[in-house]
Amino acid sequence: MLQLIVESEPNTLAQGKELIQQVRQQFQESLKRQDILELIETILIYKLPKLNRKEIEKMFSLSDLRETKVYQEALEEGEEKGRREGREEGREEGELSAKKSLILRQLNLKLGSIPLNIEQKIKQLNPNQLDNLALALLNFSDWEDLHQWLN
Asked: Collapsing DSSP states into helix, strand and coil, what is residue 61?
């Protein structure tokens, strides 16, 4: 392993692959093998920062890679990012739905029952248009005002 650390950059990749094969053959015990593979992976990541994920995957078997700390941390980060983005997207959709519902109720109170085609047009408006409609509807006196605004 020390050889991998002091090896010149062009030879590091080949040396790393060879070392991984040796570890797989010599260490059947999962925990010991996992620790050594994580150490090799860490050395390779620091020595070859331009190495991409695909190149690392080629060197490690999928089961070896899944056991490494770097893989586990990347997986956790990806899952957390997915949860954050999902919550944000859900919040935005909820706010948009509430905004549409409020505007439709206000129009119903102000102008009476809303025709289905008008309701569908309103549901297709983007958030900025909905904000503008919320302000404009305060000045509507009849359906014609809404028709003009929508067109």
From this structure: coil
Residues sharing a CB contact under 8 Å with residue 42, sequence separation 6 or more, in sequence order: 70
List the domain boundaries for the chain.
2-67, 92-150
3-class secondary-structure state, position 68:
coil
User: 66: which residues sit within 8 A by CB, 6+ positions away?
Assistant: 72
Catalogue the long-range contacts made by 115-123 (C-beta closer than 8 Å, 24 or more residues apart): 118/143, 118/146, 118/147, 118/150, 121/150, 122/150
**Model pTM?**
0.51
| pLDDT tens digits, one per residue of 104-131 | 999 999 999 999 999 999 999 999 999 9
Judge contact between 132 and 122, C-beta under 8 A.
no
List CB contacts of 17: < 8 A, sequence separation 6 or more.
59
Tracing tokens 């010149």 back to the chain, one arrives at 8
